[in-house]
Amino acid sequence: QVQLVESGGGLVQPGGSLRLSCAASGFTFSNYVMSWHRQAPGKERELVARISSIGGMTNYADSVKGRFTISRDNARNALFLQMNSLKPEDTAVYYCAARRVRTVVVDYWGQGTQVTVSS
User: Fold this and answer.
1) Using one digit for the tens of pLDDT, what is the confidence trace for 8-35?
2) What is the pLDDT of residue 100?
3) SS3 state of residue 116
4) What digits encode the pLDDT tens for the residues 61-90?
5) How many CB atoms lie within 10 A of CB 119?
6) What is the DSSP letter of 21?
7) From CA 100, how far away is CA 42, in angstroms rounded?
8) Which neighbouring-strand residues pair with 51?
9) Is 61 exposed, middle or buried (0-12, 13-18, 19+ CB in 10 A)?
């Protein structure tokens, strides 16, 4: 059974930091491109960051470049998102996702974790 379980969300003040984790199981993690997406109320889900299957390449949305860092540990089947200098506009539900290499459609989604940036 495939599972992607996010954790680490919460309430943080502007300028603060959070580290999200995503625990993967039920598939060969190292064969998948992993990504973080977010969806704010009333908005479409958007890609935040993506990392290649062995971690050598990363991509970020312009809105988070220089503030967020995506990483993965294939030995632990884990994905991370370090979020620094958080802004109120980063408030959203954050989802991790898995896509097989050389495909374009996400195969698996996590259930999401809420991140709220507010004073």
Assistant:
1) 999 999 999 999 999 999 999 999 999 9
2) 93
3) strand
4) 999 999 999 999 999 999 999 999 999 999
5) 8
6) E
7) 29
8) 34, 58
9) middle
Secondary structure of residue 79 in the 3-state scheme:
strand
> How far is the CA of 72 from the CAs of 15, 28, 36, in angstroms?
24, 14, 11
Q: Residue 55, Cβ neighbours under 10 Å: how many? A: 15
DSSP state of 43: S
Give percent of the chain above pLDDT 90: 94
> Any bridge partners for residue 116, and if so which?
11
Distance of CA 50 to the CA centre of its chain: 8
- Alpha-carbon distance of 68 to 60, in angstroms, equals 8
User: What are the phi and psi torsion angles at 16 (to 5°)?
Assistant: -85, -175
pLDDT at 56 over 90: no
SS3 call for 90: helix
Asked if residue 1 lies in contact with residue 106, where contact means CB atoms within 8 angstroms, the answer is no
Average pLDDT along the chain: 96
Provide the b/e sequence for 17-37 (b: ≥16 CB within 10 Å). Answer: ebebbbbbeebebeebbbbbb
